[in-house]
Amino acid sequence: MTRLLMMAAGGTGGHMFPAQALAEEMLDRGWRVKLSTDARGARYVGGFPDAVDIVEVDSGTFARGGAVAKLAVPFRIAGGALTAIWKMRRDRPAVVAGFGGYPAIPAMTAATALRIPRIIHEQNGVLGRVNQMFATRVDKIACGTWPTTLPDGVDSVHVGNPVRQAILDRAGAGYIPPGDYPMSVLVVGGSQGARILSDVVPEGIAALPADLLRNIRVSQQARVEDVDRVAAFYAERGIAADIRTFFDDMPMRLAEAQLLISRSGASTVADACVIGRPAIWVPLAAAIRDEQTANARQMVEAGAAILMPESKFTPQSLAQHMETVLLHPTAAAQMARAALSCGAPDATARLAELVEDLAQGHAQ
Questions:
Q1: Radius of gyration of the chain from Cα atoms?
Q2: Which candidate among 53, 147, 155, 285 keeps its CA 20 to 30 Å from the CA of 205?
Q3: How far apart are the first and last CA of the chain?
Q4: Which residues on adjacent β-strands are paired with residue 184?
């Protein structure tokens, strides 16, 4: 019988993109694949192969909702776990792989109760809450960012962060250094955009020297409520800009960019490294574990990126850092090469091999 991989992932791109990459690989290896997530996570499955069976489970998060909603979360998770146990008994997975996020709890709990082989993949440089819950209850921990902060006594394997096939198709795409011709600046704020980028980046770009500014072409992601004002700001100053809430052609835009300005989410960092692009990272200050700073560390230390904490993220400082990259083509090209040196284009294959090894070990 064809082996089944059950993946459990929360409803953000940071969790779902690596899961999508693994799903594509495991299908190619002849496995069946299911994805366990909640209704919020199901909104992100449009890019998954049709062969992946999407299983919605009831779950919840303590991060949103009022007091009554938060009191109901444990009961929703428990109900989801019982449902997952029932389903796994009927169609038992060979391996269950968790990618973090509260929607992953029911499937990971069920796999633990049924003693099914389990692996978790942590994308960030600091173990997330849900993955931390299961860190001592799984057979393998695969880390996407290195080093990753882990609980004492817990071992892990560094595999890198899997990226989608559309990113792999652009891996190592030739970098065109900045020069006296049109240059692309890509601005990304994570799956929900980032207001601080909408507030600071347009003014920072407008502050660039005129000779540089006339060559700038901006692609910027913004929240729905920010799109019109950001677009109007650029238009009033004659700056060519494409402002959208979401780019479904991100691999192409990243490959064409001379510079990326972005939150340092794990998946975005992985994409920038695999394609090989200079970056200015603006870590999310509200992140409790400051995982986005940890995500950016390798690229910064390699000379591939500039780190700008929110406390220092001003239009004037941003303009200075942009000039450092865009007015020095040799240095920019070196940053692109350094980014490539941080990439792990084989991360998906390495994670898939861990899954198959785990299945084989328990089958013997």
A1: 21
A2: 285
A3: 16
A4: 217
From residue 320, alpha-carbon distances to 115, 164, 206, 307, 316 in Å are 55, 33, 12, 13, 6
Tell me how far apart the alpha carbons of residues 261 and 271 are, in angstroms, rounded to a whole number.
13
Q: Could you please report the per-residue DSSP string of 12-75?
A: SHHHHHHHHHHHHHHHHTT-EEEEEE-HHHHTTGGGS-TTSEEEE-----TTSS-HHHHHHHHH
- Measure the CA–CA gap between 342 and 127, rounded to whole angstroms: 20
Residue 75: the pLDDT is 65
CB 203 within 8 A of CB 315: yes
* Helix/strand/coil for 126: strand
Buried b (16+ CB within 10 A) or exposed e, 241-276: bebeeebeebbebbbbbbbbbbbbbbbbbbbbbbbb
pTM for this prediction: 0.89
Dig out the tokens for 268 from the structure: 């975005």
Signed CA dihedral, 197, 202, 208, 211: sign only: positive
The answer to whether the beta carbons of residues 275 and 257 sit under 8 Å apart is no
pLDDT value of position 34: 97
The residue ranges of the chain whose pLDDT is under 70 are 59-73, 75, 191-193, 364
